[in-house]
Each structure stands twice: as structure tokens, then as C-alpha cells.
């Protein structure tokens, strides 16, 4: 199958989503050996759907160039990002729906072993950073992650405005391959990175990723914190944000060291922010 000329409507760490026609989208995986990932995502989507999380389940697998794609039926669906870009006045409405669905996800309990544990992934990030931070900072970061309470909470793992869509008035969640179990701090780290963290050094990184101005994505991040935690108190919001940022910069630093070692500006920025935050944060729980 060819995706030449198709509109890109979303992307994540493992693939890119295109619209084939008004009724159909396809997620093309980056890894050419992605068939196991495709079957895994289908099973995760099925589990989420059974637990009343509104999502699309792929109905076909096709060859796309040297890789594979999952095909979904989504009739005239639009992402939250596309809606806000076309109608900026609907930002608050979309954030309300975004937080409503996020709370539904986080209120869903998962049986042990049914999905990956996000804490284990985060611990691996920290282990990979040994030698990148000084010993005291690395030990504190490791202790903070290790001390995150064990939870059976469902997390999406890549929750942003391009992965939430509206179809005939119904909100749907897509890109389910990152579905996992863990403490919500890991989810908020991902939301922080998508809307703010990835673009702090270069705003175009976020703008290209989400297709919205950086000022808009900053507003999404701020409003999401306010509405999820039901507060506008600056001290409390800063506390929640700092916890999310510790995990977020850990992930971003590890990712940049592994994939863009030449990007010393971003590496140095992440190290500086972590160094500062580790003097302020003594627990990642909330």
C-alpha cells in the first residue's frame, strides 16, 4: 500500500498516522520488523475497549514500503490538535474533554501482568544515565524513581492532542501501543514533554510534532494541570509540574544521549534542569 500524498494526522515514538481517505486511517510503524508490535497494539487496544476506554481497533495489517501498517476505520474523525488549530476558541472545550478522558483512563484498574509496568521502564532510563549525572544526583534520581508507589492504574503513555480524536461527537483514543500500568506521574511526564519539554530549547520541535503554536501547547499543559488537579494555586501547580519534569527530563536526556549525542545544547539543558529540580523534589508521589 502507498501512503504517498496522504495527510499525516499524528505520530508517536513507534509510528506515524496518516489519513488514507475520509473513512480510514493507517498507522505506519517505524520498525520494519514491526509485526509483533502490531499484534501487541491490537491486543492492548482490545483490552482497553473491553474496559470501556473509547478507542479504535485495527481491522487489517498491510505492507507499506519496507514496513507494516495497521488500518483503522475512523469516519471523518479529527484530532483535538486539528480542531484547535482550525478553531482556537474551542481550546478550553478540548482541554475539558482531554482531562475528562484522562481521568477515565486513570480510574481504570488493570490486573497484574496484563500490561507493561511503566516504573520498570523509567528505572531503565535512570540506569542508562549513570555517568551522565554526578554521583549524588544520579543516586537521588534513582531513589526517587524507585520510591514511586506501585499502582495498577492504566496509563496511555503518549497522551497528547494528536492522539485524541472526535468522531461523530464521540471522543476516541488512538495509538495504543504505549498503553501501560503505573503511577500518573509517568503520564504527566509524557504530557509535559509533548506540550513543553521537547520544545523548550527549540520551539519548532513541539510545533512540528503537534502542529500547533508553542504558546498554545504551553496553554494546554497549564490548563491540563489546573483541571486534572482542580486547582489554580501556583504553589501546588508548581509542585505537580516539578514532579512531572523530573521524570520528563530523565526520559528526554536519555533519549537525546542515545539518539542525538551531537545535540549538546539539549543535553546540557536537561542536565541543568535535573540538577536544579533534584534539590527541590523529595518525592514523585501525588
Topology of this protein?
Elements: E1 7-11, E2 15-21, E3 24-29, H1 35-50, E4 60-64, E5 67-73, E6 78-79, H2 80-86, H3 91-106, H4 118-128, H5 135-146, E7 154-155, E8 164-167, E9 170-173, E10 180-181, H6 184-195, H7 203-210, H8 214-228, H9 234-259, H10 264-277
Helix pairs in contact: 3-8, 4-5, 4-9, 6-8, 6-9, 9-10
Explain the overall architecture.
With 286 residues, the protein is an alpha+beta fold. The chain folds into two domains: 7-73, 2-Layer Sandwich (Phosphorylase Kinase, domain 1); 78-277, Aminoglycoside phosphotransferase (APH), C-terminal lobe (Aminoglycoside 3'-phosphotransferase, Chain: A, domain 2, Alpha-Beta Complex). The chain is 48% helix and 15% strand. The protein has ten helices and ten strands. The strands form three sheets. It has a five-stranded antiparallel beta sheet, with no helix packed on it. Strands 6-8-9 form a three-stranded antiparallel beta sheet. It has a two-stranded antiparallel sheet with strand order 7-10. Strand 4 and strand 5 form a beta hairpin. Helix 3 crosses helix 8 (214-228), helix 4 runs antiparallel to helix 5 (135-146) and helix 9 (234-259) runs antiparallel to helix 10 (264-277). The longest helix has 26 residues, at 234-259. It is globular. The protein starts with 6 loop residues before the first strand and ends in a 9-residue tail after the last helix. The mean pLDDT is 93.
| Main structural class | alpha+beta
Strand order of the largest sheet: 1-2-3-5-4
> What's the CATH architecture name of the largest domain?
Alpha-Beta Complex
CATH superfamily of the largest domain: Aminoglycoside phosphotransferase (APH), C-terminal lobe
Provide the helix percentage.
Answer: 40-55%
Q: Secondary-structure element order, as H and E?
A: EEEHEEEHHHHEEEEHHHHH
Largest sheet: 5 strands, antiparallel
Q: Using only CA atoms, what is the Rg?
A: 19 Å
Q: Could you list the spans in which at least 5 consecutive residues all have pLDDT below 50? A: none
Strand proportion, as a percent range, falls in 15-25%
Arithmetic mean pLDDT:
93
For this structure, the CATH topology of the largest domain is Aminoglycoside 3'-phosphotransferase, Chain: A, domain 2
Name of the level-1 CATH class of the largest domain: Alpha Beta
Counted by DSSP, the helix tally is 10
Distance between the termini: 46 Å
Amino acid at each position: 500500500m502507498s501512503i504517498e500524498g496522504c495527510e499525516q494526522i499524528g505520530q508517536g515514538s513507534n509510528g506515524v498516522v496518516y489519513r488514507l481517505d475520509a473513512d480510514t486511517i493507517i498507522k505506519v510503524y517505524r520498525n520494519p520488523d514491526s509485526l509483533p508490535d502490531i499484534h501487541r497494539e491490537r491486543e492492548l487496544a482490545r483490552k482497553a475497549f473491553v474496559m470501556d476506554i473509547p478507542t479504535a481497533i485495527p481491522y487489517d495489517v498491510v505492507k507499506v514500503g519496507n514496513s507494516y501498517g495497521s488500518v483503522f476505520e475512523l469516519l471523518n474523525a479529527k484530532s483535538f490538535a486539528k480542531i484547535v488549530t482550525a478553531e482556537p476558541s474551542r481550546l478550553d472545550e478540548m482541554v475539558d474533554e482531554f482531562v475528562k478522558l484522562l481521568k477515565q483512563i486513570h480510574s481504570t484498574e488493570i490486573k497484574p501482568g496484563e500490561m507493561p509496568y511503566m516504573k520498570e521502564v523509567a528505572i531503565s532510563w535512570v540506569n542508562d544515565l549513570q555517568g551522565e549525572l554526578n554521583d549524588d544526583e544520579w543516586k537521588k534520581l534513582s531513589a526517587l524513581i524507585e520510591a514511586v508507589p506501585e499502582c495498577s492504574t492504566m496509563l496511555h503513555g503518549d497522551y497528547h492532542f494528536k492522539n485524541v480524536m472526535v468522531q461523530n461527537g464521540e471522543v476516541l483514543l488512538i495509538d495504543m501501543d504505549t498503553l501501560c500500568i503505573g503511577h500518573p506521574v509517568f503520564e504527566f511526564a509524557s504530557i509535559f514533554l509533548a506540550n513543553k519539554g521537547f520544545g523548550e530549547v527549540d520551539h519548532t520541535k513541539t510545533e512540528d510534532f503537534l502542529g500547533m503554536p508553542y504558546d498554545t501547547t504551553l496553554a494546554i499543559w497549564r490548563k491540563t494541570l489546573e483541571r486534572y488537579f482542580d486547582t489554580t494555586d501556583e504553589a501546588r501547580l508548581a509542585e505537580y509540574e516539578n514532579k512531572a519534569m523530573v521524570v520528563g527530563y530523565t526520559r528526554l536526556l536519555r533519549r537525546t544521549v542515545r539518539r542525538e549525542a551531537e545535540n549538546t545544547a539539549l543535553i546540557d539543558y536537561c542536565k541543568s534542569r535535573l540538577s536544579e529540580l533534584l534539590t527541590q523534589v523529595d518525592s514523585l508521589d501525588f
